[in-house]
Amino acid sequence: MESSRHSRAFFSIDASFAFLTAVFIFVAFSAALISSALTAQSQSSEIASENRALRFSSYVLERTAVSGGGQFDGHYMANEIDAGKFLSFDLPSAMGRMNASFASIKLAISSGGELAPPASGSPSPKGTYCVERLAVFEGQAARLEACIS
Amino acid sequence: MKGKGKDSGAACIGRAKRGFVMSAEAMFALLFLSFAASSLFLFNFQRYDAEAFYLCSDAAIVLARTGAFSHGSLDDAAEELSALSGMCIKAQTDSLSPRPCPGAQAGEKISLTIPIWDGSQATTARITCSRPR
Description:
heterodimer, A: alpha+beta, 7-stranded mixed sheet, 4 helices, 7 strands, rod-shaped, B: alpha+beta, 3-stranded antiparallel sheet, 3 strands
């Protein structure tokens, strides 16, 4: 009786387990592939945003730097920020160069106090990326925060 | 055929009873799983922290430009920069060894060696930066 019932069955228990295992492995590998692709995409977008923000901060440091005099005439002093140039920094023009929808800069001085020209544009829904840089402001250490989106 | 399968199954159980706890396949599967698990920590090294490198090279410029190497206030200047940047920044010259950063856990470290003028001669200084994890 038993053996005849087994012989009529379409699937054996072994075959159904093998089938289930195959389906499970397929789903697991697909999920792993999708998640690794999403991780790679988010990592590359984060790297791109960070590089863009760093490029923007370098541009700000260059454009707001103190001009060298004497033998350094025509040069700018790296990472030395001029207050006048910083406060009058042309953010809309920098945004145009960077193809950005929003940009802001802020300088925090180690002895206290902050310089921040008004931000320009409106933040993108994709998010705003900020980086910090160190600079010299009137002989003191200062932190520049440059944000872009 | 069925009889043979039954026999081999019985033989397997018999062998297990005699001390074979795992089949070769299970052992290989476990081995591969342990390889995969041990490589998971490598993903930490893929963390991209370009900002830390920029901050560290900025710190070297700021230390040099504020005269910290020649005024003998190197530790204070490094501490000030650490507070500003949120990183542990240490500066070391031939004559000055750095003060340890309080509460700094060793994250990724960046080291730069720069030429300096210490007030009497040209020498080198090492700037070490690490961002707490």
